[in-house]
Amino acid sequence: MKGKRLSIKDIAAALNVSVTTVSFVLNGKAKEKRISDEVSKRVLEYCKKVNYKPNILAQSLRTGESKILVFMVEDISNYFFAKLARYFEDLAYTNGYKMLFCSNENSDKKSNELIRLFSERHVDGYIIVPSPNLSEKVKELEEQGIPVVLLDRYFEGFEADYVGIYNDKASEMGMKHLVANGFTKTLFVSTQSTQTQMLGRLQGYKNAAEANKMDEKILLLSYDFLEKELVKEELKKFFEANNDADSILFATNYLAKLGLSVLKNISSTKLHQMGIITFDNHYLFDITCPSITAIDQPLEAMASETMNLLFNKLKNRNMPPEPKSVVLDTQLIVRDSTLPIAERTL
């Protein structure tokens, strides 16, 4: 049978000191509370000897802080979110916090379940890539004094701290590059979504198509439909129905990876002839043949701006600052897939 979990009362009794003294020492406040080095050393050495582990939940109830933050994303295995998670982890650790990561799969039900779970554990704040209808839950958290920063997407008409990119301008930039290199029949592949980042990318494509008197050729895949083989079949039908197209703009990196596979199976020559741009840089796009031009989001800057907003809210819980939006520019990483045909080595 396992023994009873050791508490600070047990430690205090064993050392014949007060519970308050033990608490101050374990929370790094010995000098501030004028506790002698000798007593502090005895407490720390005893805790090490008995392998004492503090009860994080109880500690958070006492101090009002758990020093734990949550990063909730659509899919933590996605390269874009995984890279952001690494930046967040480093920034959090540097500032005395730990990060928890989770995937909501763009599901409101799962998002709410996860937030309920983390709320029971008294996490200090959230960075959320929100599912479509999460605005009321975000509002509820803010009203409870729990800081939230939205990332990648936001809710129209809903005031909240947000960090993202100019999605429409990013699409326009990609389209401008294609037109400059002689591509005039560009397809657009995205998901059926009412979320702001995807709508922005779609609108940017439409703006550029209109400006260049280009016919719009758009494939929007249902999010629930994102089963690889089914998506590949839809992509194949779309590409074959638009056989005269000379270029493609993919709205996400995972659609680009599937699209490249489909194009290769249709015709490796076609793959090398098409002008191809994808959102979100990925190391694979640098080693594919051809290498793929990518719209690169400034991940490190996004992480830094997001954490700055969150830390500012944590420091000013009693007087929360006005919601702020930070919108950043993207960069086009030009590779072989958008070279003019005359400059390509097939």
UniProtKB/TrEMBL annotation:
User: Which species is the source of this protein?
Assistant: Pustulibacterium marinum
What keywords would UniProt list here? DNA-binding, Transcription, Transcription regulation
What's one Pfam family the UniProt record gives for this protein? LacI
Q: Which GO terms describe its molecular function?
A: DNA-binding transcription factor activity; transcription cis-regulatory region binding
- SMART domains registered for this protein in UniProt: HTH_LACI
Task: Give coiled-coil spans as residue ranges.
Answer: none
Domain of life of the source: Bacteria
The protein here is known as LacI family transcriptional regulator
* Domain HTH lacI-type positions: 6-63
